[in-house]
């Protein structure tokens, strides 16, 4: 959502170019095939999530039934009520929200500037630098737990949400910078030069011309950061100790029992955790459409 | 009634008096990592218990629940980062490694006066190299769950009490057309855990007290062979045995009434009742082989070797594992590891289906407390079970395991 | 700063003029890159060096407890090579990476092309297809494990009803299927991100180019191959590198479904490193595996990107 606010003026939706990637087929048939494929992809993607929902609302005695019922017989929302009524859930959600918003805003700001600079300007290290940053990502994160822990302890940042922010940034930024550099390198910079000839400052040209064009990329990057921060588990579970500072994924793992697990509650927790991001994305996905639109680029 | 209460109260205060006698009367702050099922919400019984402790001793306790799945890793990271809690709840299988590394405090001296209060098996699970490193918080063992209806329909009127009857019952309840099986069992390390009781019952052992590796001996081999053949020859176990890595997966066929028997601990009771309220089942001591035995599980409390509040930590550990644990664990439907919990009156106070577990507590045996136990269990024995199920002769698999374990212990 | 007499306007002017010309124009790219570099270098360097150095020391629970770690040279590597599981895990890693990367890129591109259309209801499909990515990984993996279950698995039931199998199958318990069963989950989870990246890249393909291609009478496939793909090749290359890295370092899927079993049939190098590190508490061996993975990844991505650049240079 914060991305949308970068653009002060609402941009008109421009009809997208139509890409027909199949063989030339008669129109109704092509349309049918398109929708059929879309539905197949949709069902494939959504089915496990549907199964989570179905498990979370069926009676506990129905979870182990064989054969499993595709549609729950008796529906109960008890699992959701149990979760949502507890004060803990809301605290976890608030912690996750604070963390996600901070990390998303910071990493988008930093990666947009860095990505733009790298794509637009050839300077010493402009080619190797992003690669070096990416190298830091290639070491299995689990094995960095101990040194990270030692580092945070030294700084006194253990068991705090703000202590997680630099850790997350170090993990997200290399990818974000990479992605942003990729998107910016697709932007035709001739437009920027044209704008500057028209008297815009460098800043204005960037703000008014380049940024709107890179909007889909920014949305993609922001979504990536948002989802990964919201769901991050490994670092949070190691560096957050007290109950008050837990994030949602930690709350979720607390629902997995030592011996047996209440699957209904766990699945309800999963659905509740995923829901906010899904809703945000549903509104955000419109902005995956380029602000200026490919059509504006001519000559 | 009142006499009972009075006795208990005085026992508690005596314990505290001893604890206080050792430490200056100072208020310390204790950081306590507890496995999250015990602290699932603000009104979990442990919080009330800790409040009572704080009131009695003046110390403060900071409870930090950690999920079972992450406990081992988080402890490792924190302890090796030079930090970590003062008091920690440990699965009994983790004690040896931490004790061996010198990361948890030696409690031998402190615990000596109270040793007789704890059941022998659970107490042994906290003993490494002749020293006591952890006190049992709660215990469990495995028993035999039987589906009464299926057993009756198979023409058997009494739950199996020995291996012979056990085998017969398993085969009798197996019916390919009706898709029913005699016994549901775990795969990999879940199955390995279930194997141990049978190895001991057969007079075999894994590693004995003198440190000798005995998995290659006939007592152990025959037990593995006996169970594996229930799957490979009699087809009396469903295919879930190949994959079941959690108790839910082990329980599932029993809940569905497709498997007539289940070997599991008291934790299965509530899961079975939730999963199938109509299920009619009974719980029995494990069928005996050459002798009775059952594998002990549970959690212990240990103290960080680097904690600056050793005495206060001991007081907390003792408070939670001592006489009060009978009532505390009762609230969780778990079993206290104190001797007081095994008296006939205490057993009678338990829900009916929990009684067999405490009744066979004497036959309970702790797994070997050796530093490399995690690896022996998770990799070596788990692989034995997996490969035997897939047709490898038990003799060969166990002989290889013996060599591998020998190699580990030699290190 | 606030009480300065110079108005904001002026400050802005100085700033801009600094960047417009002269030395400022040369430093400002560096200034823009600086925050990112600072954060990443500041946070990651110590852990990374520590992680790599651990491979050459005996770091176990015991030595960590006593604080005395000895330099052991390449002994950790020797011990890893001596483990028969290592070879199997290496092979599995190769299969795992190739299947995941190829499938995720292929499906991701196909979905991006499909979703890059202004047709009614497209937002609904876009959001739906993104679902796998949004579901918290732990819950997603456990759901799949539950769906594969040989006792209650809905996947088994559906395949049975469709007539593909005769009886419930322990997909995760069969050494022949376990790795592929986990791979399917991983593809399901990873594809939406590739789709999103490519969808965003497709937005930047100038319409004029497409129109020109259509006027030339290019067919669908040729247009895709000669016009669209070259336009998004940078994003595609990035998506490839990211998928590669994320797949090699994907831990949850295998760990929570099979723990590398049964009989190591789904063990990959990452899960092996985890076992060494957090089950055996031998961080030396774990770091040896991790370092090899790291070096492998660094070499592979560097070569790949050099190749891409070489082609771009043409």
Automatic annotation (TrEMBL), chain B:
GO terms for molecular function: maltose binding. SUPFAM superfamilies: Periplasmic binding protein-like II. Belongs to the bacterial solute-binding protein 1 family. This is Sugar ABC transporter substrate-binding protein. One of its GO terms (biological process) is maltose transport. Residues 1-27 form the signal peptide. Gene3D superfamilies: Periplasmic binding protein-like II (3.40.190.10). The keyword Signal applies. Keywords: Periplasm, Signal, Transport. The keyword Transport applies. GO terms for cellular component: ATP-binding cassette (ABC) transporter complex, substrate-binding subunit-containing.
From TrEMBL, chain C:
Gene3D superfamilies: MetI-like. Residues 90-304 form the ABC transmembrane type-1 domain. SUPFAM superfamilies: MetI-like. It is found in: Cell membrane. The chain crosses the membrane at residues 27-53, 94-115, 127-147, 234-257, 283-305. GO terms for biological process: transmembrane transport. The keyword DNA repair does not apply. The keyword Zinc does not apply. PROSITE patterns: ABC_TM1 (PS50928). It is a multi-pass membrane protein. InterPro entries: MetI-like, MetI-like_sf. GO terms for cellular component: plasma membrane. Keywords: Cell membrane, Membrane, Transmembrane, Transmembrane helix, Transport. Belongs to the binding-protein-dependent transport system permease family. PANTHER family: BLR7065 PROTEIN, SPERMIDINE_PUTRESCINE TRANSPORT SYSTEM PERMEASE PROTEIN. This is Sugar ABC transporter permease. It comes from Mesorhizobium zhangyense.
């Amino acid at each position: 959502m914060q991305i949308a606010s970068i653009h002060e003026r609402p941009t008109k939706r421009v009809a997208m170019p139509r890409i027909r990637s199949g063989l030339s087929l008669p129109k109704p048939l092509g349309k049918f095939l398109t929708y059929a494929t879309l539905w197949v992809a949709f069902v494939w993607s959504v089915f496990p999530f549907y199964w989570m929902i179905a498990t979370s609302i069926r009676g506990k005695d129905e979870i182990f039934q064989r054969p499993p019922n595709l549609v729950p017989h008796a529906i109960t929302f008890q699992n959701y009520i149990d979760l949502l009524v507890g004060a803990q859930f809301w605290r976890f959600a608030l912690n996750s929200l604070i963390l996600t918003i901070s990390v998303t805003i910071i990493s988008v700001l930093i990666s947009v500037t860095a990505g733009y600079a790298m794509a637009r300007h050839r300077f010493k290290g402009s080619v190797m630098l992003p690669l070096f940053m990416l190298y830091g990502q290639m070491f299995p994160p689990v094995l960095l737990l101990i040194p990270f822990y030692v580092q945070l302890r030294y700084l006194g940042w253990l068991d705090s949400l703000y202590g997680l922010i630099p850790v997350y940034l170090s993990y997200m930024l290399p990818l974000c910078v990479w992605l942003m550099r990729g998107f910016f390198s697709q932007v035709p910079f001739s437009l920027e030069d044209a704008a500057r000839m028209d008297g815009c400052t460098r800043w204005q040209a960037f703000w008014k011309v380049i940024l709107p064009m890179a909007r889909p990329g920014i949305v993609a990057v922001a979504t990536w950061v948002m989802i990964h921060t919201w769901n991050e588990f490994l670092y949070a579970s190691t560096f957050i100790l007290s109950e008050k500072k837990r994030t949602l994924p930690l709350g979720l793992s607390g629902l997995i029992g030592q011996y047996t697990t209440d699957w209904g509650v766990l699945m309800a927790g999963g659905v509740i955790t995923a829901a906010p991001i899904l809703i945000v994305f549903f509104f955000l996905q419109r902005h995956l459409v380029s602000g200026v639109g490919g059509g504006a680029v001519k000559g | 009634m009142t006499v009972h209460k009075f006795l208990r109260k005085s026992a508690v205060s005596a314990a505290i008096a001893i604890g206080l006698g050792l430490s200056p009367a100072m208020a310390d702050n204790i950081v306590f990592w507890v496995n999250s099922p015990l602290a699932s919400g603000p009104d979990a019984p442990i919080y009330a218990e800790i409040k009572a402790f704080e009131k009695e001793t003046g110390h403060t306790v900071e409870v930090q629940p950690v999920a079972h799945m992450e406990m081992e890793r988080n402890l490792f990271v924190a302890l090796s980062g030079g930090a970590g809690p003062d008091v920690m709840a440990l699965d009994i299988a983790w004690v040896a490694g931490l004790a061996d590394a010198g990361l948890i405090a030696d409690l031998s001296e402190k615990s000596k006066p109270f040793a007789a209060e704890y059941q022998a098996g659970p107490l042994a699970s906290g003993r490494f190299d002749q020293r006591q490193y952890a006190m049992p918080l709660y215990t469990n063992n495995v028993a035999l769950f039987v589906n009464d209806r299926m057993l009756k329909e198979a023409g058997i009127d009494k739950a199996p009490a020995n291996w012979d009857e056990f085998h017969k019952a398993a085969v009798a309840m197996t019916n390919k057309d009706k898709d029913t099986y005699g016994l549901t069992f775990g795969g990999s390390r879940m199955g390995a855990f279930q194997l141990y009781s049978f190895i001991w019952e057969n007079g075999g052992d894994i590693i004995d007290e003198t440190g000798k590796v005995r998995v290659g001996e006939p007592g152990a081999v025959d037990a593995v062979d006996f169970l594996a053949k229930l799957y490979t020859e009699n087809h009396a176990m469903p295919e879930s045995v190949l994959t079941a890595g959690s108790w839910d997966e082990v329980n599932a066929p029993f809940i569905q009434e497709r498997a007539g028997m289940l070997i599991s601990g008291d934790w299965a009771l509530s899961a079975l009742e939730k999963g199938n309220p109509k299920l009619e089942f009974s719980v029995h001591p494990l069928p005996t082989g050459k002798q009775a035995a059952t594998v002990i599980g549970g959690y212990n409390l240990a103290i960080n070797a680097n904690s600056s509040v050793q005495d206060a930590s001991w007081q907390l550990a003792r408070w939670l594992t001592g006489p009060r644990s009978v009532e505390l664990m009762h609230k969780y439907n778990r079993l206290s590891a104190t001797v007081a919990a095994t008296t006939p009156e205490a057993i009678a106070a338990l829900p009916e289906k929990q009684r067999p577990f405490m009744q066979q507590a004497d036959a309970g045996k702790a797994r070997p407390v050796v530093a490399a136990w995690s690896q022996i269990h998770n990799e070596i024995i788990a692989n034995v079970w997996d490969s035997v199920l897939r047709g490898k002769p038990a003799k060969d698999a166990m002989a290889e395991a013996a060599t591998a374990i020998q190699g580990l212990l030699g290190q | 700063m606030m009480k300065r007499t110079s108005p904001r306007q002026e400050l802005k002017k100085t700033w801009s003029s600094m960047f417009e010309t002269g030395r400022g124009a040369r430093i400002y790219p560096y200034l823009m890159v600086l925050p990112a570099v600072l954060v990443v270098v500041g946070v990651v360097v110590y852990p990374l060096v520590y992680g790599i150095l651990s491979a050459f020391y005996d770091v176990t629970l015991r030595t960590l407890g006593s604080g005395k770690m000895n330099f052991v040279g390449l002994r950790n590597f020797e011990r890893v090579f001596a483990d028969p599981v290592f070879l199997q895990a290496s092979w599995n890693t190769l299969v795992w990476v190739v299947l995941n990367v190829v499938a995720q890129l292929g499906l991701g591109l196909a979905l991006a092309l499909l979703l890059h259309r202004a047709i009614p209801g497209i937002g609904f499909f876009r959001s739906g297809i993104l679902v796998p990515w949004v579901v918290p990984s732990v819950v997603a993996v456990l759901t799949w494990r539950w769906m594969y279950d040989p006792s209650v698995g809905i996947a088994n039931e559906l395949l049975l009803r469709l007539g593909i199998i005769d009886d419930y199958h322990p997909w995760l318990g069969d050494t022949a299927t376990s790795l592929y069963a986990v791979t399917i989950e991983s593809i399901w989870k990873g594809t939406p991100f590739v789709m999103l990246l490519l969808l965003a890249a497709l937005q930047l393909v100038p319409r004029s180019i497409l129109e020109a291609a259509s006027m030339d009478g290019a067919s669908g496939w040729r247009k895709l191959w000669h016009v669209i793909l070259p336009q998004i090749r940078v994003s595609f290359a990035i998506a490839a590198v990211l998928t590669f890295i994320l797949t090699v370092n994907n831990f949850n899927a295998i760990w929570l479904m099979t723990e590398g079993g049964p009989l190591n049939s789904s063990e990959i190098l990452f899960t092996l490193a985890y076992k060494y590190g957090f089950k055996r508490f031998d961080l030396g061996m774990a770091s040896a595996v991790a370092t090899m993975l790291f070096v492998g990844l660094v070499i592979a991505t560097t070569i790949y990107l050099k190749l891409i650049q070489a082609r771009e240079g043409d």
